[in-house]
Amino acid sequence: MERLSGTELLQEAGRLLAENKYKEAVKIFDILVEKLPDVPIPLLSRCTCLIQLEKYNEALKDGLKILELPNGPIDEDVANGCTTVHSVAYVRIAKCYKELGKTSDAESMIRKKNEIEQSIIRNMAKSSLVESLPPDEPSKSLAEKLRIQGNELYNHSKFKESAAIYSEALKNDPDNLLIHSNRAQALLQLGDLENALWHADTCIRLNPKWAKGYYRRGCILLEKKQYNQAIIALETASNFGSTDKELSKKLKIAKQFRKQQQTSENLSVKNEASNFINMSIIGALTIIGWIFE
């Protein structure tokens, strides 16, 4: 089993699940979780299998581990009313708590799941509104005025000054997607990659379906030479319909650098599974999403 590729492991897991052989499927996900500890899909799959086996304490541990990983989008067909990995995790955790007799904890998890989904709806509406504001709109907020001022500074290559203006804007509107995105770009130009990544990840947290957040994250990770993660982010941006003209170029560069890094001894199960999942979380879920129904 250890010698199977990532794709073969997932295919075998799918076959076992179709036959309701959850115990055997868990063994496969054990391998993938060990090889890919920072990827939520194997954990989420194993968590679901453990629930089917009524091993609620073990499933609960997996669910809580998922919440420690970065959130990301997920096909809504995977779990009704869930559009992010964390939302599904909260639902799975709630199921465990309920079966363990912890009703209040279960209800708390469902509330947190609902808060995530409601926040996404609010931020999608906010981002649409902000993007539609014309430059001379008299009713725009102070944060929006500062954003436009920061954009002007950035366009004149005054990256440090623009980053400072965006920071002031965020004090007035801390959940503004566009300002976080713009500050991430300014900090990227300044070489402040850690803080730039924080702003990109904040965009994703606020709206896991906004392509620009993933594009920003991908560009920053490319600069950090974290090519596998950069490819995941850039391909996710593409899946969400990013129209950025540089995306294809950045993705090609990331793949070229990743190929240069790979050597024969690195072609282990971990890399093969990573290459499969690097099609992006959405791509992987297309294949195994029905597991969570």
From TrEMBL:
One MF term in the entry's GO annotations: Hsp90 protein binding
SMART domains: TPR
One Pfam family cited in the UniProt record for this chain: TPR_16
UniProt-listed InterPro entries: TPR-like_helical_dom_sf (IPR011990), TPR_rpt (IPR019734)
Keyword set, alphabetical order: Repeat, TPR repeat
Keyword Hydrolase annotated: no
TPR repeat coordinates: 143-176
Keyword Repeat: yes
Name under which the protein is recorded: 12568_t:CDS:1
Species, as recorded: Ambispora leptoticha
